[in-house]
């Protein structure tokens, strides 16, 4: 089934609303937030007030009860911002961390935290990755042991987006020391300020500068038994489920960045003159941008097809892995070429395309590197 990206009138309304918000609340401050190293939480609270931080969550807890198609419309519209650091700050909160609570939390946990997540009063992070364990979840070493009515967590997490300023972190830890591989993992909710939980260091990155990223340390961190999210030793399945949501979000981010980079380049080459004529008059410029626009439109169709598959409750691991691999590479090709056509100005920090180039690079790495995604596709190869 072909799913047009021109979905429903209410989706177009949402795109316009998000575009206005980005133009007034984000783009004027993008360079400032890069230099500060994080996105102000007040911006997220403004988004919460607009109802954008819980689109797919139950109305019982303040969410909108929307489907994945609507969520992807929002993700893509948000990703038209030139600040990837801002975008990932939001998407980690909405689509990578808090879904652990929405999907597996019990009634008491949801009532306690989810309304504040939806308003932006609580900002979330998810801590799965470790120095020696990324997509290879089975290699997680952080462990938790029972001690009376508590769990005691020990270990280190790495590359945690929102990790410096998050109020609530969902932590993957091994709870069965005898279980092999991916078995014996559980998810815990750890609140900021919990004794034994600390930010080891804020990490300095090549891109996503407006996103705070941390190494997190758990040193005999004691959390109540009531902070176990979902079933004990069932964390692997929660992580795998959430990987699909995360990878669709990153695909949306890549497509949104491609569209913005192409818009910036088209405007620039129409205005910039070289050797007495606009750059647009050069055939190689026109044709390269046109081909990248075609590839972006094709990737966009796959993005919305993945959203449709999720809404129809189909197994979409193969298609989502294709999406992540394709868009992670494409966004780097698009932004790099668009920067090239900006010439020297494209290398200046004041230029939006320069920021997009830096921020796009990680989309082929984070959330499952291209090579990992291609292996997931190969495992599920279906001959025509």
Write the layout of secondary structure elements.
Elements: H1 9-26, H2 30-36, H3 41-49, H4 68-78, H5 84-97, H6 99-104, H7 107-119, E1 124-127, E2 143-147, E3 150-161, E4 168-174, E5 185-191, E6 197-202, E7 213-224, E8 228-229, H8 235-271, E9 273-274, E10 277-278, H9 283-311, H10 317-342, H11 352-360, H12 370-379
Parallel strand pairs: 1-4
Antiparallel strand pairs: 2-3, 3-7, 4-5, 5-8, 6-7, 9-10
Helix pairs in contact: 1-4, 4-8, 4-9, 5-8, 8-9, 8-10, 8-11, 9-10, 10-11, 10-12
Briefly summarize what is shown.
The protein is of the alpha+beta class and 384 residues long. It contains twelve helices and ten strands. It has helices spanning 9-26, 30-36, 41-49, 68-78, 84-97, 99-104, 107-119, 235-271, 283-311, 317-342, 352-360, 370-379, and strands spanning 124-127, 143-147, 150-161, 168-174, 185-191, 197-202, 213-224, 228-229, 273-274, 277-278.
Describe the structure.
The chain contains twelve helices and ten strands. It has 384 residues and is an alpha+beta fold. The protein has three domains: 9-119, Butyryl-Coa Dehydrogenase, subunit A, domain 1; 124-233, Butyryl-CoA Dehydrogenase, subunit A, domain 2 (Beta Barrel), CATH 2.40.110.10; 237-379, Up-down Bundle (Butyryl-CoA Dehydrogenase, subunit A, domain 3), CATH 1.20.140. The strands form three sheets. The chain has a four-stranded mixed beta sheet with strand order 1-4-5-8. The chain has a four-stranded antiparallel beta sheet with strand order 2-3-7-6, covered by helices on one side. It has a two-stranded antiparallel sheet with strand order 9-10. Helix 1 runs parallel beside helix 4, helix 9 packs antiparallel against helix 10 and helix 10 (317-342) packs antiparallel against helix 12 (370-379). The longest helix has 37 residues, at 235-271. The chain starts with 8 loop residues before the first helix and ends in a 5-residue tail after the last helix.
């Amino acid at each position: 089934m072909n799913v047009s990206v021109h979905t429903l009138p209410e989706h177009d309304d949402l795109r316009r609303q998000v575009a206005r918000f980005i133009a007034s609340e984000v783009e004027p401050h993008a360079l400032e937030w890069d230099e500060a190293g994080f996105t102000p939480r007040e911006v997220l609270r403004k988004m919460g007030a607009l109802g954008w931080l819980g689109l797919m969550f139950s109305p019982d807890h303040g969410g909108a009860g929307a489907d994945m198609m609507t969520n992807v419309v929002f993700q893509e519209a948000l990703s038209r911002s030139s600040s990837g650091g801002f975008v990932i700050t939001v998407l980690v909160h909405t689509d990578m961390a808090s879904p652990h609570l929405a999907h597996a939390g019990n009634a008491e946990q949801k009532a306690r935290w989810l309304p504040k997540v939806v308003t932006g009063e609580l900002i979330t992070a998810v801590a799965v990755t470790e120095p020696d364990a990324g997509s290879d979840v089975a290699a997680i070493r952080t462990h938790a042991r029972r001690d009376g009515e508590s769990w005691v967590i020990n270990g280190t997490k790495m590359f945690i987006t929102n990790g410096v300023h998050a109020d609530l972190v969902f932590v993957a830890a091994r709870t069965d020391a005898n279980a092999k591989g991916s078995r014996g993992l559980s998810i815990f909710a750890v609140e900021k300020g919990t004794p034994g939980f600390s930010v080891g260091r804020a990490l300095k990155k090549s891109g996503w500068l407006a996103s705070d990223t941390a190494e997190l340390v758990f040193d005999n961190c004691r959390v109540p038994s009531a902070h176990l999210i979902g079933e004990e030793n069932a964390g692997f399945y929660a992580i795998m489920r959430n990987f699909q949501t995360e990878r669709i979000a990153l695909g949306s981010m890549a497509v949104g960045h491609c569209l913005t980079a192409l818009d910036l380049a088209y405007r620039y080459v129409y205005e910039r003159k070289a050797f007495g004529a606009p750059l647009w008059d050069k055939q190689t410029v026109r044709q390269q941008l046109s081909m990248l626009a075609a590839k972006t439109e094709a990737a966009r169709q796959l993005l919305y097809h993945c959203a449709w598959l999720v809404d129809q409750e189909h197994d979409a691991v193969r298609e989502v892995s294709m999406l992540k691999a394709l868009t992670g590479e494409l966004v780097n090709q698009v932004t790099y070429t668009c920067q090239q056509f900006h010439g020297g100005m494209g290398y200046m920090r004041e230029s939006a395309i320069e920021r997009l180039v830096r921020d796009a690079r990680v989309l082929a790495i984070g959330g499952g590197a291209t090579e990992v995604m291609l292996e997931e596709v190969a495992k599920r190869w279906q001959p025509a």
